[in-house]
Amino acid sequence: MDAYSQGVQGSPFIPTEAGTDDGEPVTRVPPRPAFYFKAHRARWGIIDGQVLPILGKMALRAGVNGVTSSRGAFRTAKAKSDASERGWRIIPLDCVPPAHGVESYLYTPPGRPDVHLCYTDRCYPGDARIDTDEKMWTEFLAHLVESGAVDPCPPYVLARMLEETRKLLISAQKDARTVPSRQADAARIAEDVATLEAAASTKTAKPVRRRKAAVMEAD
Amino acid sequence: MTWQISGITDLLSQEVLAGIWIQALAERSGLPLGHPALIRVPAPVGADTARVPHVGLMGYDLLARVDATDETVAPTVTSHTDASTDLLLARYSKFYDVSDLGSLIDATGVIREETFAMDALVSCNATLASLLTLLVDNFATTAGTSGVDMSASDFLDAIGSLQVNNCEGPYLAILAPIQLSDLRKDLALNSGGAVQFNPGAQAMVDAQHRSGYQGNFAGVDIVMNDFVDTTGGNRRGGMFGRGALGYAITRPVADPDFPQVVLGNECLFEKARGYTGATTAVTSYISHMNVAVSEMIDLAGVSIITDA
């Protein structure tokens, strides 16, 4: 036995040094609560040349619109019931196109458990803005309609949108004669009118059987 | 919050302090809570639910004509129209720890209980604003076009929709910063100066409406708030009149046995020694608020959805 082997045994130690690089900064997007998407029969818009639902959100935050929490879990029965009474339909978290390869439409960015975004949203280190993958978002919305999670746009809503958009087109075309910056608007709105006309031509409202109203006249 | 342990002590012992401090950037605006379009629902101490009835009176039902020639004919009874909104309150809290060393040798005036008391009140207001802002994308009626910058036309459409829905003014609009920027740009570039924000002295008077207030356009007060939702590449602000949104805050009660005080009738502010552990050289500043917000009458609001 030599002298060295009699020394005390130790474990390897690697000191941690503070560096100048703290790693990639987390995103500066303001806190956003978790949510369910919800769709309303009256909220539709033209997105990427299609008539698609303008979704709303049911925020999962205690104290907001009837949501409560208990021991870290949300209680949403009242909030969902209230939303349903107002004509909203809650979209299940897993209602995403299979091709997109995600299990839920919600995600939280690294280091920010207080930020909840849709999987089509993009945020960046040290930056407060949120961008959207427009193509994925449009595919997501189209999937909601195709899968039946959202009923198709009712004909009366389409007719109303068409009327409003035609009015906008007339106004924009009038302006465009004298204001060059309105020419682009007029072209965009003309495309919207074409989209709505195409959608309306495929949907016709069922005739409603109306009750006769009796009017009593004096002799 | 941990800066008092490593960060600020390092600063105090190793750097020469400038004697001033600046605020980190954040959305800290409140909303004009006294605005007629926002309803504060009374909630007594200890309440966890506040119910607001929606009543169909004061002209909701018109009188029906009864046969003038036959006074024995009785009118038919008019059914009451009513509904209600329940606001379910929840506790919101936060606390900061402050080290003894930091408090002792602070030369900037930051590490004082007055500062944390002010922070508590501002944070309560900002929290309430963030909650109310979540609601403005809840309306079934919308204005604006997905993917297109906000314009004066969208703003006027929202006013028109509220009027069509018989919603009484004055209206309040909550817009995201980019929406306000686009609206201002549209006014400046496309209206030829025909329409204006309130100018000059009036703007100075309007400035008393708390932070976030941006002026009045077409008779509608505008506040800007970055908590306005972003979805699908759009910001989702809104405009509403009285009856659309309500909030409730229960007044907390300070226990005289503890160093607690009620701030602004809505926030319980507390100073505690060693809140996270009695053996630490740390003082905690804690604030609590019991609050609820809710959409009430859907047709009294319009969501304004425009490009982000």
Describe this structure in words.
The complex is a heterodimer of chains A (about 220) and B (about 300). Chain A is of the alpha+beta class. Chain A folds into two domains: about 35-145, no CATH class; about 155-200. Chain A has four helices and eleven strands. Chain A has a three-stranded antiparallel β-sheet with strand order 4-1-7, with helices on one face. In chain A, strands 2-3 form a two-stranded antiparallel ribbon. A two-stranded antiparallel ribbon of chain A has the order 5-6. In chain A, strand 2 and strand 3 (about 50-55) form a beta hairpin. The termini of chain A are far apart. The mean pLDDT of chain A is about 90. With about 300 residues, chain B is α+β, with helices and mostly antiparallel strands. Chain B has a domain at about 105-305. Helix content of chain B is about 25%, strand content about 30%. Chain B has helices at about 5-15, 100-105, 115-135, 150-165, 175-190, 200-205, and strands at about 40, 50-55, 80-90, 90-100, 140-145, 170-175, 215, 220-225, 230, 235-240, 245-250, 260-265, 265-275, 280-295, 300-305. In chain B, the strands form three sheets. In chain B, strands 5, 6, 7, 8, 9, 10 and 15 form a seven-stranded mixed β-sheet that branches. In chain B, strands 1, 4, 11, 12, 13 and 14 form a six-stranded mixed β-sheet that branches. In chain B, strands 2-3 form a two-stranded antiparallel sheet. Chain B is flat. Chain B starts with 6 loop residues before the first helix and ends with a strand. Mean pLDDT of chain B is about 85; it is low at about 1-5. The chains are: A alpha+beta (about 220), B alpha+beta (about 300). The interface of A and B includes residues 48, 55, 64, 68 and 134 of A.
Number of helix segments of chain A? 4
Mean pLDDT of chain A: 88
Number of strands of chain B: 15
| Structural class category of chain A | alpha+beta
Order of helices and strands of chain A: EEEEEEHEEEEEHHH
| Count of individual beta strands of chain A | 11
CA-CA gap between termini of chain B: 32 Å
The run of helices and strands of chain B is HEEEEHHEHEHHEEEEEEEEE
